[in-house]
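> tool_call: predict_assembly(chains=two)
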Amino acid sequence: MLSNIRIVLVQTYHPGNIGASARAMKTMGLTDLVLVNPRRFPDPEASRLAAGAEDLVDDARVVGSLQEAVADCVQVVGASARLRSLPLPHFDEPADMARELVEQGADDPVALVFGRERFGLTNDEIRCCSHQVSIPANPDYGILNLAQAVQVLAHELFTAWRRRPDSGYRPALPATERQPTREQLDHFHDHLSRVMQHSGFITQPHARTEAHLQALFARARPSRRELSLLRGLLGSLERHLPDE
Amino acid sequence: MLSNIRIVLVQTYHPGNIGASARAMKTMGLTDLVLVNPRRFPDPEASRLAAGAEDLVDDARVVGSLQEAVADCVQVVGASARLRSLPLPHFDEPADMARELVEQGADDPVALVFGRERFGLTNDEIRCCSHQVSIPANPDYGILNLAQAVQVLAHELFTAWRRRPDSGYRPALPATERQPTREQLDHFHDHLSRVMQHSGFITQPHARTEAHLQALFARARPSRRELSLLRGLLGSLERHLPDE
């Protein structure tokens, strides 16, 4: 699942960011982590922040250059907070980047590259990339923490993958409740009308009020159980109404 | 910008998660943070992890119950890692939740609620919500760190807001380079053809090869500057070719 998509972190300063990035990756089905010249690695902080994704940290490959990290990749997207003057093709929308990377990653290795916390990627490193992507953000404060940026783009990759017809992804949906029939709904609305008239809320059948209530319950889509509950309530209320 | 959308964190255990969540919020244009019974707050860890979003932490409202936190809201979405058996309306897709919350938030306060790191929200707290949302994730390891979950959903909210015609959001695009005219492109392709024939790469005009190259450069969309660069290169190469 998404196994051809490599996440590359270049010269990460805080080992905690490596761990948190690994966790972010694993929640989104990514497993291939490569570190280019991490400042301190291995490190207890990386393992601690990884939580249940320590396997990704333990299996992470460490290399000396970005070139080495992506040599076998057919597409390399550099994530940068700021656009560079170098007119590398740029994805405005992370979702577009994700769709394309997942598509290319179906056949060959591809990579998404993140730079240093403070300084991002150098121009030489940008030259190892075929595309750039940035995460649209608040113009007044738009720099995400490194691991947060990894989480956001990993989420976009997982979303793009899920939506492919061949992904086989099945959301964990709750069991659907049984729905009432039209006849059962009609009985309920008749019952409700009777109680409204009997209680003096309306003095005769009032088409507009009844139409509003029918629309409300149509939107609510009560299950059989819920309708039954409402009928029971109406029954209890009726017992206190004056005899007709 | 997105000012009616409140982020509520219930009984957050790690103050660092409060700070990191505030940072995540601010990068995505959110400013209204409310904390329900945080375990330790204020705390230096919250300020430290907030980075440039300390103002959100300082302005965060602290209340004693979720009910109090969302009393004035017209829509309250509970973010939970697991679906509850309670059939509260559920958003499968964070993007759908975001579109709706931004829409509702145009007129009235709305809230997105996150539970405890380990235990999420209690059933009573779910009852304060009108909807649930979960972030689709790896079925084998799908629990995001709290601040990461805030970042992902905040990103979806910002995306939904950006895409509205009335948002006024303008992406920071690099200045577009001037494009060559058809005539300039034709001159370039003629020049390239001459060099290909003159060098012996093709022995006569070869329509298929030329069509491929025209398609390549059509996709590449060289700017005027780039075309000029290529013409210069062709000129330099020509000087070394045997006289015709």
